Structures are given as structure tokens and as C-alpha cells.
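Prompt: For my understanding, could you write out one protein's sequence and C-alpha cells?
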Amino acid sequence: QVQLVESGGGSVQSGGSLRLSCAVSTYTYSSACMAWFRQAPGKEREGVATLDSDGTTTYADSVEGRFIISRDNAKNTLNLQMNNLEPEDTAMYYCAADPTVPICTLIPVDYGRWGQGTQVTVSL
């Protein structure tokens, strides 16, 4: 059973940075699509960034140029470096993974494994 455990959330002022990490319990996910999603209160879950096994990344327009997704296969972790944070980035952030998706997407239903989430709060 694959487990994903996020960490690194917290509170920061606008313009600040945070680094989220997701520990993955099995080495097999080095070949999977992995992604970060977020969900703000009263809003639908939205894709933030994806990373596939060959290193290809995709980003939501709202975070392009500010966030960087990366993976450390030796440590079985997925990371999200978030820079120049804005109040609109406030949300619960989730990592997700799936070894069966042929193309990594920003669509939540495409992912079969989820972490429990870590809260990010950005204030003015």
C-alpha cells in the first residue's frame, strides 16, 4: 500500500517562500506521474504542478514561474518550491501519484493515491 505524507506547510507573508515535501512509501513511484494539487475553502480541488518519470513538468498558469516541482528518487520524495507567494495561494496542498496514467495531467480524478494534505496560509 503506497502512502504519501506531505510536510512543510505553514503561514507566510505575501512574497515569501515555502517548500513542501511528500514522502512516498515505495520506490515503484519513481516511474509514476506525481503531482501537487490544492483546495481552498469552498472551491474545487485544482492542479498545481505535475512531474512525470522522465522529468517533464507542467504547471497551472496561476503558479507558472513561481513554483517548482521536483522529485528525489533516492529519498522517495516529491517537492514543491513555492516562491513569491500570494494570498490567493492559500489552500490545503495535496500530493498525488499514479503509475497507470499514460500522460500526467492536472485532473484530480486521474490520480489514485493521495496524501492527507498540508495547509499553506499566505497573509498580506
